[in-house]
Amino acid sequence: MFPTHKEISDLVRDGWVHRRIYTDPEIFQLEMERIFHRTWIFVGHESQVPNPGDFYCTTIGTQPVLMVRHTDRTVRVIYNRCSHRGAKVVNEPTGNVRRFRCPYHAWTYETDGKLRVVPMRDAYPASIDFSDPKFDMTPVARCEGYHGFVFANLSEEGPGLHDYFGGARRAIDDLIARAPEGEVEFIGGVQRYEFRGNWKLQTENLCDQYHTSFTHESSASKDGYQYKRRAGDDRQQTRIFSEKGDVVSHDYGVWFYENAHNSIGAMHFETEPSGPIYERYRAALEKQHGAARTKEILKLRRHNGFFYPSMDIHHMGQFIRVFRPLAVDRTQVLAFPMHLKGAPIELYEDVIRVMNLSHSAAAIAQTDDLEIFERCQTGLLAQNEDWMLYMRGHGMDVDDPSGAKYGPNTSENAMRSQHQVWRTFMTAE
């Protein structure tokens, strides 16, 4: 039996979370319905479908969908399902088509999802009206874009895109400002990997600065420096530990917004890069914005920006991560490098190199986190204690001029926000 609203509500308390929310398959199914199918989910970027007929296959929660550029050049998001017998129409991750053709019985659809061809139509009763929209590849309830980022919502109810993201949209605004031509592009491939753990373990980790000095000690200690953390940075590497081996104190904090979106401030080692390629990039920005505005743009204010429940912009690394829940104990991660349009292509190539070292399936840093996620998932099955503690920084939040709440350093304020919003969404009618 699915848990009642009261049972779900009782699983989250102020600073305490019951292990069941990570291990119960029935709760996972309700999450798909009440969170992933009712909120704004990142689908893709318009640059992934630049030409009419271009498509990109993905999912919203557990629902297969297609992002496609229609003949009128608008970007549509439609369900990837044949209306005849339910087959998934498109199986390739990307491509270009004139029309979509189901491999089962060749029902054929326009790139906006409208049914075009039914083979041997005469065998059907004359009473069947194939112009009825129920025979189309149905569009999702709502689809909106923001600076080229395409989001979709499977529900017709609830706030619009701008209201749902609120002040968190600044994470996208800041990213776009760093592109000399005012756009980003997804012009490369994708890092794709899975871990045996619940999707919330990943979303919590995005705002967890308590773990970095310990989980990543092997690559952040004095003897473990193995890669640069920012493209174009020829001067220094990540230093979480001092020369004496002590943990370096980070004077940055965590902001969280309404609906559980959050950002982490830039870390102490995230100074502005240098070098001839970077100077070419700076010159391109100054040509567009002038020297004073360029200096303001290049001041890195955040390490990352998370859009609940499934998309994170990694500002320092210049890529995004998308989280796809596959099962209660299985999650897929997609990481896309981004090109700042108008910036030297060499900076983008550096982004890919850094991603390979830090956030690929065989990377130095991300694999630390994946190991922890899987250990958590296994440990949560132990029945010695049902409740987990999320009380760091409790009572220390202050109002920020941006409209967010701010907590210092290793506060777990954004995690508490995620849990409270999770409870609200999961108990909504």
Describe the protein in words:
The protein is α+β, with helices and mostly antiparallel strands and 429 residues long. It folds into 2 domains: 113 residues, 3-layer Sandwich (Rieske Iron-sulfur Protein); 258 residues, Naphthalene 1,2-dioxygenase Alpha Subunit, Chain A, domain 1, CATH 3.90.380.10. It is 26% helix and 24% strand. The protein has 13 helices and 24 strands. The strands form 6 sheets. It has a 9-stranded antiparallel β-sheet. About 2% of the residues have low confidence.
Q: How many beta-strand segments?
A: 24
Give a short account of the largest sheet. Answer: 9 strands, antiparallel
Low-confidence stretches: 234-242
The largest sheet has its strands arranged as: 14-20-19-18-17-16-15-24-23
Q: Strand portion, in percent?
A: 15-25%
- Cα Rg: 23 Å
Structural class: alpha+beta
- The best one-word shape is globular
CATH class of the largest domain, please? Alpha Beta
Q: Percent range for helical residues?
A: 25-40%
Cα(first) to Cα(last) distance is 18 Å
Average residue-wise pLDDT:
90
Secondary-structure arrangement, i.e. CATH architecture of the largest domain: Alpha-Beta Complex
User: Can you say what the CATH homologous superfamily of the largest domain is?
Assistant: Naphthalene 1,2-dioxygenase Alpha Subunit, Chain A, domain 1
List keywords for this structure.
four-stranded antiparallel β-sheet; globular; nine-stranded antiparallel β-sheet; 13 helices; Rieske Iron-sulfur Protein; alpha+beta; 429 residues; single chain
